[in-house]
Amino acid sequence: MQDIKARIRWLRKQHGLTMAQFAKSIQVSPGNVGDWESEKRPSVPGAQALIQIAKTYDVSIDWLLMGAASQPAVSNQSYSAYIKPEYAAHPELYQQLTELALTMTEEELLRLIHSIQQHEDYRIG
Question: Start and end of every HTH cro/C1-type domain (predicted)?
Fold first, then answer.
C-alpha cells in the first residue's frame, strides 16, 4: 500500500466502517479521519491517534506509518461471503485485490467489475 492515508482508508473499509464510525472507535472527530484519508490534505494522525488505531484494530504503528512488518491479515469472515469457497484459502489474493482497488478510479473499478461479470465462469451466489 502506498502511504499512511491509503492504509487508514483500507483498514477502515476492511472493517466496514464509515468515517464517523471509525472516528468514534478511536475517539477523534470524523473530520480528522476525512483529513487523514484525503490526498488533498497533508494531515496525518498524531501519536495518540496512531496508538489508538493500533490498539483498536490490532495493527502495528510501523505498518500504519511505513507499511512495514506486520500488515493486518484479512480474515475469512470479511470476505468469504463474496468469493468461491475454494479461494478462501488464499486471503493474500483478496488482500492484493483490495489494495489495488483502493488505487483505482471509480471508472476503472466499474470497468473491472463489468469485465469480471462478462467472464463465462462468473456466478453470483
Answer: 8-64
